[in-house]
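Sequence only, no structure available. Ideas?
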Amino acid sequence: MATTADFKPGLCIEYNHDIFTITDFQHVKPGKGPAFVRTKLKSLTTGKVIDNTFNSGVSITTARIERRPHQFLYKDDMGFNFMDINTFDQLVLNEDLVENSDLLKDGQEVTLLIHAETEKTLGCELPPFVIMKVTMAEPSIKGNTVNNALKKAIVETGAQIMVPMFIEQDEIIKVDTRERCYYERVK
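Reply:
I predicted one. Tokens follow.
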């Protein structure tokens, strides 16, 4: 058991018969009335984000979520196939449990979120940055580089990323998987 004083981003709680992770919170002490905590909660089972307010000091049931390293093997008609790096057990996940699935490369290491009590897989976290090769980039137009202009590029997995005008085809770039954006060029 925890209280609202233990809230921090990433804490997983059981609330309304679901498992949520706290993405944002704010302690509020109004001039009149008791203190409370405003939170943004993301469901680990459905992916929905809700706003909720808790009274200050309320007891909350925390959920034990384990982060286990896995390797992405391949995608087939059953879903995404992963292998546990420690035990070599394989498991298949549906596409809705893998966020930004078009940024997954074969052999890439990811972290699977698993509920410790039920051993149910709740989701898949990609590493913060992945290195990709640009397979197709729109040609840059002379004079468009003044205002930090961006253009569309397609990387080796088929994902479409907005990149700066100086990026050309066959270049290697680092992509931020959380924001789905260009981060830097890799030498």
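DSSP finds no helices and 16 strands in the chain.
Hope that gets you unstuck.
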